[in-house]
Amino acid sequence: MLLQIRKVSLLLRRAKHSKSHWSQVQKKQFARDRALENFDDFYGQVYGNRWKSIRVALLSEHKYMALVNQFGDCERTVAELEADGAINLREIYAAKKRSLSGTFEERASGDKIFKMDQRIEAFAENRERQEMERLYKEDVPEVGIREEVGAMEEGAVDFKKSLSKTLQDDKEMDFQRIIDPDFGTSALHEFIPATKLKGMEDYVPESDHYKYYSNSADFPVTIEMENSFEIPQNLDIYTYERGNCSDFRPPRNCSTGVLSHFLLDGASILPALALDVQPGDRVLDACAAPGGKSLLLLQTLRPGTLVCNDVQESRVNRIRKLMGSYLYDFSENWKQKRCFITHGDARNLTEYDMYDRILVDVPCTTDRHSVMENDNNIFKSSRVKERLRLPELQAGLLANCLRLLRPGGSLVYSTCSLSPVQNDGVVHMALSNVFNDTGMTVTVRHQIRV
């Protein structure tokens, strides 16, 4: 009996690991990796030897504090927190103040500021030079964009060259790959390798971000030394001793139907306390969400009126939910009476000369979040333009909020960033713009020690 030979087809297929395999995950650069790389580059040059300690702190666990809710069972809550080993922040501050013997001397910080200015200038120049080297090849003469497009129209581009050869020759991005919007759609018909394509209207050089930092004084400003810092007597904030990052017990429901305490990052209490709200003040929290600082201001029982504003509806809803969880009579006695929750862009508010105190906690790079989490990270490749234009947004918010202040009022500008560009640079730019537009002059209060 003869066996019938069947035809066998052999299909070769290269096995690949899935995207979740450790070998693929290791190769991928996440947003938090880009953030840390950026900080090592920028902050390492700005802060010098101090950056190593700052870096360790950024990568360490959060240090939370517990704000006792005055509208709940506050005495019971205080007793429970103290039984857990927590210490009232007021006692820590008083002990620190006594150790300094009540003397506050102005520190000689002028030289440090001058050195920081020099470091930022050098870093910005170096970043700009790197970008120019990346855009212009060394062996290509510097020519204008219009001349490049003109050369393309005259046949300077070899259309007979194969695609693989073209991509090999043009690995680095040059101005042949940037489309000037002034030329309309005609330039789109030219052959351009599709590996890197950017429209000039969307292209923001990273070096431009650091140019927002300026140390030139082109407007009058008075600087006063401030040595007073007060924690209101009816405000109970608890924390653990230095180096102890123990977790607090979760908030419980009180007999009044609200939560017992609110947990917030330790640094978040400083802007609200620095605002130094006085009884009856009309207060604006321009970028209020998620609402922790606004809640702290209400717990002082000092604001006559508090306006909590934010630009996103979802974040505004978070403020409403938070207030309802901690103020038992929020709907009856607070909502739209003493506490107004508004939805809008603080750059467009027009209640000029209306507020005694304004807190401007602007959107920023949120350094600790950026090096710890990938979700909602501003260092994502899709958010480069948003990140580089942050100082422009911050300066717009600060400049308009300055116009909302009554004469003699106070404003606190705060960020969650170590960047001098987003702090000193933005303040300088906003003060300059306000003076040029309105002639307004301000006094900067320098807190000597806290």
UniProtKB/TrEMBL annotation:
Residues binding S-adenosyl-L-methionine: C287, A288, A289, P290, G291, G292, K293, D310, D345, D361
Keyword Transferase: yes
Active site: C416 (nucleophile)
Catalytic activity entry: a cytidine in rRNA + S-adenosyl-L-methionine = a 5-methylcytidine in rRNA + S-adenosyl-L-homocysteine + H(+)
GO MF annotation terms: RNA binding; RNA methyltransferase activity
Entry keyword Cell membrane: no
Keyword terms: Methyltransferase, Mitochondrion, RNA-binding, rRNA processing, S-adenosyl-L-methionine, Transferase, Transit peptide
Pfam families per UniProt: Methyltr_RsmB-F
Compartments in which it is found: Mitochondrion
Domain SAM-dependent MTase RsmB/NOP-type: 196-450
An example Gene Ontology biological process: rRNA methylation
InterPro entries documented for this protein: MeTrfase_RsmB-F_NOP2_cat, MeTrfase_RsmB-F_NOP2_dom, RCMT, SAM-dependent_MTases_sf
Signal peptide (from-to): none
Major place of residence: mitochondrion
One annotated Gene Ontology cellular component of this protein: mitochondrial large ribosomal subunit
Family indicated by similarity: Belongs to the class I-like SAM-binding methyltransferase superfamily. RsmB/NOP family.
PANTHER family assigned: 5-METHYLCYTOSINE RRNA METHYLTRANSFERASE NSUN4 (PTHR22808:SF3), NCL1 YEAST -RELATED NOL1/NOP2/FMU SUN DOMAIN-CONTAINING (PTHR22808)
Protein name (Swiss-Prot/TrEMBL): NOL1/NOP2/Sun domain family member 4
